[in-house]
Amino acid sequence: MSKTSWIVGINAVASALEHDVANVREVLMENSGKNPRLSEIEKEAVDCGIQVRKVNTQALEGIAGGTRHQGVAARYEAAKLLDEKDLKGLVEGAEGKALVLVLDGVQDPHNLGACLRSAAAAGVTCVIIPKDKAVGVTATVRKTAAGAADRIALVQVTNLARALRELKDLGVWLYGFAGEAKASIYSLDLKGNVGLVLGGEGDGLRRLTGETCDQLVRIPMPGDMESLNVSVATGVALFEAVRQRGAA
């Protein structure tokens, strides 16, 4: 069942109107807003038959909950998250070229949003996130993702290790990213059914997640840093796969 939520910010609302207007229920606009893009959003919403309400700044701030709203919010019926039972169809539909991103416990909504944006740009088959000990798809995630959250198959699972084992049974080779690993990402063959598994902020991959992967790998860093931000590492990993697959 779909769930109604609020998305905020000019890019997030404009993207929803452009890519998924059928699920936008109403648009709220700051009655003192001066940004010319707000007028464009208002016209687009009205042209699509969506109610636009002018509200005061306090009302938008209450909806945004601390996220920068830029004078606009939309009540949005978010696409239903997929679950474990959908993995088989997703992988088989990729016909031997599945590219799966697994995020093990990302806590920061900005990081998750950035990861989803990179995943959409890379054309992933799906993104898998756990239900527990990880951020959900919040308004901040949607704003950071700039519409990507509703353009990709997002699978939320109750047991990540079980989902990883199912991927392996479906012929997906799982690479877990860990700083202590010996193998470099640049030595891998990422052209078949591949799952890239990255850990959350701070602790990285959980022990069981790492043990379930087929191989642990690292991103070489010649500079004096121990690790990359998870969203940066996600971008590096995904676009190495894209490069190998010969995307134009």
How would you concisely characterize the structure shown here?
The chain has 248 residues and is of the alpha/beta class.
The span between the termini is 37 Å
Helix share bin? 25-40%
**Largest beta-sheet details:** 7 strands, parallel
User: What is the average of the pLDDT values?
Assistant: 89
**How many E strands?**
11
Q: Report low-confidence residues grouped into runs of 5 or more.
A: none
Strand order of the largest sheet: 7-6-5-10-8-11-9
- Backbone shape: elongated
Q: Structural class, from helix and strand content?
A: alpha/beta
**What's the tally of helices?**
9
Q: If you compute it from the alpha carbons, what radius of gyration comes out, rounded to the nearest whole angstrom? A: 19 Å
- In percent, how much strand structure appears in the residues? 15-25%
Topology order in helix (H) and strand (E) letters: EHEHEHEHEHEHEHEEEHEH
